[in-house]
Amino acid sequence: MKASIALQVLPLSQGIDRIALIDQVIAYLEAQGVSMVVTPFETVLEGDFEELMRILKEALEVAGQGADNVFANVKINIGEILSIDEKLEKYHETAY
């Protein structure tokens, strides 16, 4: 089943470099080979639902290796979904 996931990882531990930890999570996500877009507030992934659930779990584990407390906002869309490109195509000309 096709799905898209929007993931925002928020490391809440004190004394850590939050941006560096978020960069580690994004690097992990990029290495997974699924379609994705990084935005200022969240990263959007699309692919097979089961594969995305595995990736989500592992991304949270990556974040947890660098922080003792990680908060995540997750949005999931399942089924007959529009692709990232289809959702954004009408905005490419006006985005900047």
From TrEMBL:
Thiamine-binding protein domain ranges (all copies): 6-91
GO CC terms in record: cytosol
Annotated InterPro entries: MTH1187/YkoF-like, Thiamine_BP, UPF0045_domain
The organism's place on the tree of life at top rank: Bacteria
Protein family: Belongs to the UPF0045 family.
Name of the protein: Thiamine-binding protein domain-containing protein
Originating organism: Streptococcus infantis
